[in-house]
Amino acid sequence: MSQNIQSVRGMNDILPGEAEFWDVFEETVRSWLKSYGYRPIRLPIVEPTPLFKRAIGEVTDIVEKEMYSFVDSLNGEQLTLRPEGTAGCVRALIQNKLAAQHPQRLYYLGPMFRHERPQKGRYRQFNQVGVESFGFPGPDIDAEQILMGARLWDDLGLEGIRLQLNTLGQAEERASHRAELIAHLEKNADILDEEARRRLYTNPLRILDSKNPLMQEMLAAAPVLFDHLGSASLAHFEGVQQVLRDAGLAYEINRRLVRGLDYYNLTVFEWVTDRLGAQGTVCAGGRYDGLVEQLGGKSTPACGFAMGVERLVALIRDSGGEPALGGIDVYLVHQGEVAARLAPRVAEGLRDRGIDVLFHCGGGSFKSQMKKADVSGANFAVIIGDDEANDGQVTLKPLRASGELQNEQKRVGVDNIADEIMNSFLDGEEA
Fold first, then answer.
1. Is there a contact between 203 and 263 (Cβ–Cβ < 8 Å)?
2. pLDDT at 324 over 60
3. Is the whole-model pTM more than 0.85?
4. Which of 190, 360, 408, 430 to pair with 174, CA 20 to 30 A apart?
């Protein structure tokens, strides 16, 4: 016997009901982004592998262990399923000369791919909302993007999401700190775990983010990047904080917040929660002023962040939040030869007026069709038999009304049915 084919581990189906939940979430997100002047951009899922190696950094978990990379058998090109969206967005900015036009506020939404151990809120195919700005050098755009997050949590009814903030300064400041940090780690080489030893000379800053309890005391005594920052970096960080203070937004400065990608500088931030276990970050980002030039474009200040959709949906569900899913307005029941010819015209006429119609297919008695109408979630049943069809009429029955209205139904002329339904909505006769 042949075995059933299953989905790839960590790549999940999103079924009806859950997918409708996602639709409502995405509509909320798009409306929120539009209110801040961000415009959509749609990017390829597959990009040249060198794009991510140059942007993310070759000595990172993503590039070393997590990317889904392959050789295109048709032309030998090295390709990768995108593990994150910023690199592709910068590539599109350069390729299409968008930065030369005017500063850009852009966003994208879609699947990303990383080969890691699946767990709650963290999958091998996962979805992100990415927000990127280009051409804004000051701390005001950093602060705006942070305030955007606070507004979205409020829009989604989410509580208990905390803001952590740090600055990574500029490249030369990080180089000075890096040398001092390596010296400190070398003195404590016997404490370093295998991962830290591997990163000691390639990406020592990431060692500070280690969760190994045996290294925490040593890491707490490590040189602090903040002590190496110059006046310009400190002024930029203070500018971000001033906007947040003026807005009354609480935050925590986390000196060990470094982010996992090589391209960040100056402001970095994370929104975190205790309600998702070990994977507590729901939104993270910061400034990456050097990336456009690094990938072949002109020097362009940039700032952005990304949010994990699965984690946010899990938080909404965990909070007891259920979005108001848009139901069907009308279930159209019909039986008989004449009725079968009239029913599609009635359905299309209602749709012309903006009324959602679920048209019964597959035949069956009036009784069986009405059972399906009841469980469909529709507010009304429009019923057409041959008698109604011959008279140019339909029967309108409320399905979600209460009290005396629950059993009320009436004959209505075909030309008047849309007005009757819309007036019923306005009068509050539906549930």
1. no
2. no
3. no
4. 190
